[in-house]
Structure prediction request, 505 residues.
Amino acid sequence: MHRLFDLTGKNAVVTGGSRGLGKEIALGLAEAGANVAIISRVECPEVVYELEQFGGKAVSIAFDIGNLEMHKELLSIIEEKLGKIDILVNNAGVQKRHLAVEFPQEDWHYVMNVNANAVFSLCQVFGKPMLERGRGKIINVASLLSFQGGFTVPAYAASKGAVMQFTKSLANEWASKGVNVNCVAPGYMATDMNEALINDKVRSRQIMDRIPAGRWGTGEDMQGAVIFLASSASDYVHGFTIAIDGGWLGR
Amino acid sequence: MSFQLDYFSLKGKTALVTGARTGIGQAISVGLAAAGAHLILVGHQDNMHETQEQIVKVQGTSETFLMDLGDVDGLGAKLQPILEKYQIDILVNNAGVIYREPAAAHNMQEWNRVLDVNINSVFTLCQTIGNQMLANGAGKIINIASLLSFQGGINVPSYTASKHAIAGLTKALANEWASGGVQVNAIAPGYISTNNTEALRNDEQRNKSILERIPAGRWGQADDLAGTAVFLASRASDYVSGHVLVVDGGWMGR
Prediction:
């Protein structure tokens, strides 16, 4: 690999790294040479085993990122197991679907808390030691719904819009201190979260008709962009959102 | 083959870069060569030696073709010898010119020249080489956009119009060609320290106000774009289409 993309010896954290896009992202980082900690609600030794096959260290930590007051403790636990963190990927996210007119307050707060509040807090907590060391890479997983409104998912759209915006805010403050904060915005990906869409024949066809690439994305499609943003190849990229959407946003 | 060798590797690929003599075009050419691509360097003056030497230093190979991208009508014919000799896998439309004059007085002849080089010739290059890529079922096109693909700039209306057109063309081609295996994307460089921006850097007041607005606190270097170009030229970006990737030290978010 081009030396610019090499992550050998770097320590990375991926929230929601046990399945779906997060797992593929974790595997990509491991394959590029990084040691990886995955965070998920339950421990996943089998994913650790997969990650270890690339030769680096891997750990799995059971933690609910919606538990904001414990984020500092989470950092200590990870630093103890892996060392100082070079790369943070805020991938974990949740979804609730209701018509806007009857969207329950409880679900709204749940989605906003995990997708936006927890991500901001993790950026703060993990960003601080990065700022002290004068380097670090933070990659937040945004969404097409950082740009668009979606349908029956107003909380998700609001939370992903927030992620893209505060990514710019953090970049404005942290770029000159050697910490890159950016986003990746996945398009329509064939993952668990979209199973309902994929199984809905009408929606599935409507979506497919609008993707210039003519196919749903896969977790593997995320790896290149995440490795790029985690590596020195992107040192002058700050506050930006890379769409990995098969062309959707331009259609 | 291991992932590390494979994912961002351009081994066995042929890349054509316009405006490869200096600055951003040179850095991208050397970056692609370092990743393993054979380079076709396109320029309009016979002075490509600096780029050629840098490519040799990274153990790369290159061939140079001279043509004037301002001559849009003659361009298709001039590309034929290249297409007969090579299957182009990667096209980087980097060559560009800028003309400064307030909009109210902006010279029409200059307007036409800027649009010819910056957008009309780019469309011809995309069309001609894109056809070969589509027939091959694979290809990567990277157009060099600008911050002025998003913003208006000042005293450079022709440049701004041409760079907005680049962003639009990139998306238009992606919509038609993504399903044919050809990814069309753009890179929008921020304020990069090259010959083109020397006047700005020498103007103390402008330099200060620009630097104050760049979150990264520094001008970009042409080398800062090499990694992005390799990413968009490699299979690491196979699901990225019609995207304008901004490399600006954070400028657009400020």
Observations:
- Chain B touches chain A through 53 residues (CB under 8 Å).
